[in-house]
Every structure is written in structure tokens, then in C-alpha cells.
């Protein structure tokens, strides 16, 4: 989601080395949080950052030292139990799992899961989460798009395509419309 919104503060370079430096963060992130050169957690106490400067993504989903306001339950498989497969191989490729003794937990296309989301926020916050889940509205009707999720989403087009649907919320399109109106996402 952060890449579809202007003025988010996502990290712009690889910090896998464990040595976070200010240059590895976006300008907005540096201006807002003034990260510590030693890579310690940022200070989110009220007087330590620029009020009103926390980007929507960090504000909703959290950041180092900042709790998420969105909670996802475990999703439970509700369709055919045979949709769930444990395998050492994916198609003709084993991706080195045999060497490492690993297995993959896979579900077949069309498998259905159910879970719930708790969003502590207003309608715009809900709209942001729905939008990030690939939900759009056309003529006040919900449209559900596939989004990419999981490890093999870029390696194999048979993997990582999911579609979320919202039950029990009559304000989905209003929430999405309010979010899009305020933040004007690019995609």
C-alpha cells in the first residue's frame, strides 16, 4: 500500500545488513522520526516526533516502537480439506527444500479461508485497509481483485494470488471512497 500513496515513509534501501543509517530511509521517514544511527528503536512518545507527520501506513500497521491499529486473525480453511497440501516440491522444482529438510504448506487454487480483521480507527482507516486488500468500488458495488501475497508470488504465477472479500460491513464502498478522496492513491 505504501508505494501507491504519496508521502509515506517506507525504507527505501535494503537494510538487511542490520546497520540502519539515516541515508537508508526516505526523507519523510528521517524528517518525521529522526532515526537513531545505531539502529535502535525510534521514540514515538508524543514530544519526540513531528505531530501530524506519521504516514498513514505506519499509523495503521505500526513501525518499530509504534503498535499496529490493525489485527488479523488466523484464517481457517473452510473449503475442501483436500485443498491443503504439504509438499517438498512445487511442480518440478524443489527450491532446495530437500537439502534443508523443509516442506511447503500449499493450498490449491480456489481454496476458501475465513478470518476476521479488527481495525481500531475511523472509516478512512478502514477504507485504507480494504483498498490495500485489493477491494475497489464501481457504482457503489464492491469489486474484489487478486493481490500478491506470500513467498513465491513473483517466482511462479500459480502462487501468491489471493482475493479478499468482506462480510458484514455495509460501509465498505463509502470507506474506500473516503480514503481515495483524501489520499488519492496512484493505483
Automatic annotation (TrEMBL):
Composition bias, Polar residues: 1-20
GO BP annotations, alphabetical order: defense response to virus
Keywords associated with the record: Antiviral defense
Nucleus recorded as keyword: no
Alphabetical list of Pfam families matching this protein: RAMPs
Span of domain CRISPR type III-associated protein: 38-130
Region Disordered, residue ranges: 1-44
InterPro entries assigned to the protein according to its UniProt record, in alphabetical order: RAMP_III_fam
Protein's recorded name: CRISPR type III-associated protein domain-containing protein
Source species: Metallosphaera cuprina (strain Ar-4)
Amino acid at each position: 500500500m505504501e508505494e501507491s500513496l504519496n508521502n509515506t515513509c517506507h525504507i527505501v534501501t535494503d537494510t538487511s545488513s542490520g546497520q540502519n543509517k539515516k541515508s537508508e530511509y526516505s526523507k519523510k521517514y528521517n524528517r518525521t522520526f529522526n532515526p537513531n544511527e545505531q539502529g535502535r528503536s525510534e521514540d514515538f512518545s508524543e514530544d519526540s516526533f513531528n505531530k501530524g507527520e506519521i504516514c498513514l501506513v505506519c499509523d495503521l500497521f505500526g513501525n518499530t516502537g509504534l503498535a499496529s491499529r490493525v489485527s488479523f486473525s488466523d484464517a481457517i480453511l473452510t473449503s475442501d480439506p483436500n485443498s491443503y497440501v504439504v509438499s517438498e516440491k512445487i511442480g518440478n522444482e524443489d527450491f532446495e527444500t530437500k537439502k534443508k529438510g523443509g516442506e511447503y504448506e500449499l493450498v490449491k487454487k480456489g481454496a476458501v479461508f475465513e478470518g476476521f480483521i479488527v481495525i481500531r480507527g475511523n472509516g478512512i482507516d478502514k477504507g485504507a485497509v480494504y483498498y490495500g486488500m485489493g477491494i475497489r468500488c464501481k457504482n457503489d458495488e464492491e469489486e474484489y481483485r487478486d493481490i500478491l501475497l506470500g513467498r513465491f508470488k513473483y517466482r511462479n504465477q500459480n502462487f501468491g494470488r489471493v482475493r479478499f472479500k468482506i462480510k458484514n460491513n455495509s460501509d465498505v464502498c463509502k470507506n474506500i471512497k473516503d480514503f481515495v478522496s483524501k489520499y488519492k492513491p496512484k493505483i
